[in-house]
Write a structure and sequence with these properties.
About 15% of the residues are buried. The N terminus is likely disordered. The protein is globular, with a radius of gyration of 19 Å. It is about 5% helix and about 45% strand. By secondary structure, the chain is mainly beta.
Length: about 150
């Protein structure tokens, strides 16, 4: 058997481990610099946590990566206030309100961080202080397929 690989055409018989990709959350600051790059699986929760500017209570917006987008799966909050879904169907879970919004996909999720809201990003077990990293500046979250990182001992 002879395998031929033409320039620009992938060889399906090739087993180049560097060609493997993984779904990756990419967070950039206002200059476009990547400040967080982390792999995410289909069940990895991507959480934006912040303090509500009026109510001064914790809000958690929870997303998952799906087909190159961020999909909001729920919002968790402790009190009703400006900008929170006061007339939506919510359930109470451990003393917090949980709202499951209609399906919304974001190719780019833009977040304006700040000192009052003090936005954090939580991906799995890792926490990133977005407000601190950007000095209260804006960030953009996207999902991309990136080459799987490999480590050499």
């Amino acid at each position: 058997m002879i395998a031929v690989c033409m320039l620009g055409v992938p060889n399906p018989l090739a087993t180049d481990p560097m060609s493997e990709t993984e779904t990756t959350l990419v967070v950039t600051d206002e200059t476009g610099e990547e400040i967080v790059v982390t792999p995410v699986g289909p069940d990895t929760e991507i959480v934006i946590e912040y303090t509500h500017s009026v109510e001064r209570t914790l809000v958690r917006d929870v997303y998952v990566a799906e087909n190159g987008t961020l999909v909001m799966i729920r919002m968790e909050f402790s009190s009703f206030g400006a900008g929170l879904p006061s007339e939506a169907d919510v359930v109470v879970d451990e003393g917090r309100y949980v709202y499951h919004p209609p399906r919304t996909e974001y190719e780019t999720l833009r977040v304006m961080t700040g000192p009052i809201a003090d936005h954090d990003l939580v991906v799995g077990d890792d926490r990133y202080d977005l407000a601190g990293i950007t000095d209260g500046g804006p960030v953009e979250l996207t999902v991309a397929e990136r080459a799987r990182s490999t480590t050499v001992d």
